[in-house]
Amino acid sequence: MPSGLEQAKDPQLRASAKARGSELKQAGVNVNLAPVADTVPAEIGRANEPIGKWGREYGSTPAAAGKGALAFARGMQDAGVEPTVKHFPGIGRITGNTDLTATGISDTVATTTDPHLAPFAKNIEGGTRIVMVGSAHYPKIDGEKPALFSRKIVTGMLRDEMGFDGVAITDDVGAAKAVSATPVGERATKFIAAGGDIVLTADPGRGEHHGHRHPDHGEGRSRLRPAGDRLGHPGAHPQGGHGPAALRLSPTPRSRRRGSSRRASARGRGRRAPGARSARRSRAASCPPAARGRWPVGP
């Protein structure tokens, strides 16, 4: 698979992504934990360990990052594979890799009106149904919690401000150093309480080769813990052996979906007033991100 920077040079990126997605579909995979929508500024470049070092970004500006990510995402959807836009609200400015370290993972610039949010807004407006929330820190947004545990970020920004009512999934919370100070069980409950749906955890004994861990270690070979039914498939299982950052969601009977949703709501978010979710959908439909003008998404 070419890097994001290489893919961005492809004038037929959507068609190319569809071809790759078709291979995943034929292998029984219906979710791809890609694309990256992070913007890595040119002045940071390869000093950005999780993205820039590997050329995973689609560009050094929000416009380029959003354009490439959306083309890839739509190509996957054309093939019947659901893409996952990541790593909200953006890890392009940090220097540390959240999988490998708990230092150098704070973005001290980002705010709720950060231009680097535009690629996510563009993809949400374009039909993205799964967003991965990163585990970096954003002190100007939430000075106490990393993104995946922050209700200000998951519910306040992603859901309420951007109008996203799809699936919110974590980056790795099993082996990642960024969350190592949080007890294992609390890593799941804190994400659900913040407004998330699915918890992703890597097997610490896998994804390592000769002492080196690939940057997709926490995302490629995984076990999922369902916590919502925003895609209508709360039962989730890995589909290993068919390339990095891919998995398969298995359908669950509707009666179980309703029960699962109610239990997740009661445990994680507390009881919602009747019609709360439909009201949020109405807000999203009547006032999409581009209409609000906070994150210009461009053509």
In short:
This protein has 299 residues and is of the alpha/beta class. It contains 10 helices and 11 strands.
Q: Features of this protein?
A:
33% helix
Question: Your description of this structure?
Answer:
It contains 10 helices and 11 strands. With 299 residues, it is α/β, with parallel strands linked by helices. The two termini are 27 Å apart. Strands 3-4-5-6-9 form a 5-stranded mixed β-sheet. Strands 2-1-11-10 form a 4-stranded mixed β-sheet, covered by helices on one side. Strands 7-8 form a two-stranded antiparallel sheet. The radius of gyration is 18 Å and the shape is globular.
Total number of helical segments?
A: 10
Strand arrangement in the largest pleated sheet: 3-4-5-6-9
Strand content: 5-15%
Shape: globular
- The radius of gyration over CA amounts to 18 Å
Which percent bin holds the helix content?
25-40%
The ordered string of helix (H) and strand (E) elements is HHEHEEHEHEHEEEHEEEHHH
Low-confidence segments, given as residue ranges, are 204-228, 232-244, 250-287
Q: Please report the distance between the alpha carbons of the first and last residues.
A: 27 Å
Structural class by secondary-structure content = alpha/beta
**Mean residue pLDDT:** 78
* Main sheet characteristics: 5 strands, mixed
Oligomer: single chain
What is the β-strand count?
11
